[in-house]
Specification:
Elements: E1 3-11, E2 14-19, E3 23-29, E4 42-48, E5 51-57, H1 58-61, E6 73-78, E7 85-89, E8 91-99, H2 113-117, E9 118-124, E10 127-132, H3 134-137
Parallel strand pairs: 2-10, 5-7
Antiparallel strand pairs: 1-2, 1-8, 3-6, 4-5, 6-7, 9-10
Length: 146
């Protein structure tokens, strides 16, 4: 039985997961530089050990109110084809291992912007984990509902 590891996190109480192969690191950061005229999904830029990282606000991508950037915000730093990018999330979870044969398509009840960002779901205990499409999540040119 094939298994896959997912790094989990929460946004507005919903449990999301990304394959660990996409994750460089997770951290809390509090000093962001705003980017005038940037798409609404860009929460800001920050310097991580000499590298400038764009922070994509996953709340905005999901059609929710943006993060308050007045204190520490949780970041999931993703390995990109060109350069790392960060997803701003509400809370970091654990790395979990899931059986690939338990993967299911997104439920019909999943609507709105989330529908475009979710590849499928896994049952994790009494919760549903939404497997996030990394490429869609960091697409700052995609339209937003907010």
């Amino acid at each position: 039985m094939a298994t896959r590891q997912y790094a989990t996190f929460e946004v507005e109480g919903a449990l999301f997961g990304i394959g660990v192969e996409h994750v460089q690191e997770v951290l809390s950061f509090s000093e962001y530089t705003t980017v005038p005229l940037a798409p609404a999904t860009i929460g800001g830029l920050f310097n991580l050990r000499g590298q400038v990282i764009a922070a994509v606000d996953l709340r905005v991508r999901l059609g929710l109110p943006r993060h308050a950037m007045d204190g520490p915000v949780m970041n999931v730093i993703l390995r990109g084809d060109e350069e790392p990018v960060s997803l701003l999330v509400d809370r970091i979870g654990e790395v979990i291992e899931l059986d690939a044969d338990q993967f299911e398509p997104p439920p019909d009840t999943l609507a709105g912007p989330a529908r475009e960002l979710v590849l499928g779901t896994f049952k994790v205990g009494d919760r549903l984990m939404l497997a996030l499409d990394v490429d869609a999540a960091v697409d700052t040119n995609a339209p937003t509902a907010a």
